[in-house]
């Protein structure tokens, strides 16, 4: 490592600079570890993966990308359940007691409403029951084998492997300018310069590297996630749940159960939700208000834990942007390579991005090694072809559906119309896959 002084700035030089230590950047760093390349990984955060802004689900094929055992696998998932037009039902204690005596010999509400969540309201005079009696079954239940991961644990392990192999990790270093082979960043208030043969942009939805390459994302979902600590009792649920309601404009709410934590979240299409698209933060208060309401509506004691109580064990609310503009038109520009969300590889309908991010890192690592071995930056152009071969078909379909969602969401006037609309635009239904 060189820490020479050049124009008053700390100066670093390396073969590969990776901007961003999320799933894409950390995976790329670990894939390039031990190859003899001098690699620097930087991230604007001081603590890895804090806060986490996603539901932390990955498909089962995720583990096959790595040649080592992954840390942070928290729960195995078998199914995805989709609920449409599920509304809260407010019942008095008297009504609930009557329901018990009429319908339940065991005096257990879960026997009456087997897929319902039940929690005490603060007033203690009524209870919130979800979903509506008579509409308990999900609109869809499909096989979705995969895992709930603890991203923080997993990515910290990747970075530790990278550092132990000789890589350099610089936290609290926010890149603010790219100029040819140089990147300028602020590290703890001090300017640094990093010169690299190859620059990998893994810097998320609002990517400096993507902007430099001329392919910034223009359409976003906004996501909120709350993580709750589970009681230490009972087996974890094996089903993830998503909830579609008209007021969750262009998106959905989720309940993704782990062993240690359960993720409750909400994603909204900013193009539908926020009048001032250039300032998504102006609607944050209303956004959180909707989230809290949906959270109440989607409480579910049958997550496999006893009396999961969202009023207890909550961690900090986290929020972030999800890019839904589709795959980048120019993921390779001169010596710049885009991976993960920066390359637009997030699914425009589901918002899922971890699996694609890691797959893109594996592809990018292959050609970065070839370029560094003497083939030069022309070798990087193969990344574009492999991205298109691997991702473009599914992402183009999802992008078309995202456009359908954006244009048609507000015209669904009745519950029946809304349900047909969701069935045509959500991956769990056959209508989504019809040409």
What would your notes on this structure say?
- The protein is of the alpha+beta class.
- It has helices spanning 23-32, 93-103, 109-112, 151-164, 208-213, 270-273, 284-297, 354-375, 381-408, 415-425, 430-433; strands at residues 4-6, 9-19, 39-42, 57-59, 73-84, 89-92, 117-120, 126-130, 140-149, 168-170, 173-179, 182-187, 190-201, 220-229, 239-244, 252-257, 261-269, 318-323, 332-333, 336-338.
- Among the domains are: 4-52 and 149-217 and 327-400, FAD/NAD(P)-binding domain (3-Layer(bba) Sandwich); 91-134, no CATH class.
- It has eleven helices and 20 strands.
- The model is unreliable at 4-8, 88-135, 276-283 and 297-312 (pLDDT under 50).
CATH superfamily of the domain at 4-52 and 149-217 and 327-400, by name, is: FAD/NAD(P)-binding domain
Q: CATH class of the domain at 4-52 and 149-217 and 327-400, anyone?
A: Alpha Beta
Strand content: 25-35%
What is the CA-CA span between the terminal residues? 54 Å
- Overall strand count: 20
Based on secondary structure, the structural category is alpha+beta
Shape: globular
In the CATH scheme, what's the topology name of the domain at 4-52 and 149-217 and 327-400? FAD/NAD(P)-binding domain
| Stretches with pLDDT under 50, minimum 5 residues | 4-8, 88-135, 276-283, 297-312
Task: Tell me what the CATH architecture of the domain at 4-52 and 149-217 and 327-400 is.
Answer: 3-Layer(bba) Sandwich
Arithmetic mean pLDDT: 80
Proportion of residues in helical segments: 25-40%
- Main sheet summary: 9 strands, mixed
Count of helix runs: 11
Oligomer: single chain
Radius of gyration (Å): 23 Å
């Amino acid at each position: 490592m060189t820490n020479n002084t050049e124009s008053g700035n700390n100066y670093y030089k390396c073969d590969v600079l990776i901007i961003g230590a999320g799933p894409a950047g950390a995976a790329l760093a670990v894939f390039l570890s031990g190859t003899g390349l001098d690699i620097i990984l930087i991230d604007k955060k001081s603590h890895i993966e804090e806060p986490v802004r996603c539901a932390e689900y990955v498909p089962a094929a995720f583990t096959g990308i790595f040649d080592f055992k992954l840390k942070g696998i928290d729960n195995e998932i078998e199914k995805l359940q989709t609920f449409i037009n599920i509304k809260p039902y407010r019942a008095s204690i008297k009504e609930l007691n009557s329901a018990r005596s009429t319908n339940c010999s065991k005096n257990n509400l879960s026997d009456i409403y087997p897929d319902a969540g039940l929690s005490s309201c603060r007033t203690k005079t009524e209870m919130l029951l979800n979903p509506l009696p008579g509409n308990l079954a999900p609109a869809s239940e499909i096989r979705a084998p995969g895992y709930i991961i603890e991203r923080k644990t997993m990515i910290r392990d990747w970075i530790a492997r990278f550092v132990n192999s000789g890589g350099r990790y610089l936290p609290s270093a926010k890149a603010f300018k790219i100029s040819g082979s140089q990147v300028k960043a602020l590290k703890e208030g001090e300017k640094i310069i990093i010169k690299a043969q190859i620059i990998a942009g893994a810097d998320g939805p609002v990517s400096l590297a993507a902007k430099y390459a001329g392919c910034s994302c223009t359409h976003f979902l906004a996501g909120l996630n709350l993580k709750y600590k589970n009681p230490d009792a009972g087996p974890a649920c094996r089903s993830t749940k998503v909830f579609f309601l008209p007021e969750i404009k262009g998106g959905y709410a989720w309940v993704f159960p782990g062993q240690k934590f359960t993720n409750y979240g909400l994603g909204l299409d900013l193009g539908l939700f926020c009048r001032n698209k250039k300032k998504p933060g102006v609607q944050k208060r209303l956004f959180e208000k909707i989230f809290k309401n949906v959270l109440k509506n989607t409480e579910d004691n049958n997550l496999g834990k006893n009396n999961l109580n969202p009023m207890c064990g909550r961690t900090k609310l986290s929020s972030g942007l999800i890019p839904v503009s589709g795959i980048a038109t120019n993921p390779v520009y001169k010596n710049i390579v885009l991976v993960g969300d920066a390359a637009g590889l997030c699914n425009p309908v589901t918002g899922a991005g971890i699996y694609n991010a890691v797959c893109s890192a594996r592809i990018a690592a292959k050609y970065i090694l070839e370029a560094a071995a003497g083939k030069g930056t022309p070798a990087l152009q193969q990344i574009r072809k492999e991205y298109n071969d691997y991702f473009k078909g599914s992402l183009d379909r999802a992008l078309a559906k995202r456009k359908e969602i954006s244009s048609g969401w507000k015209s669904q006037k009745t519950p029946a119309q809304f349900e047909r609309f969701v069935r045509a635009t959500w991956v769990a239904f056959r209508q989504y896959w019809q040409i």
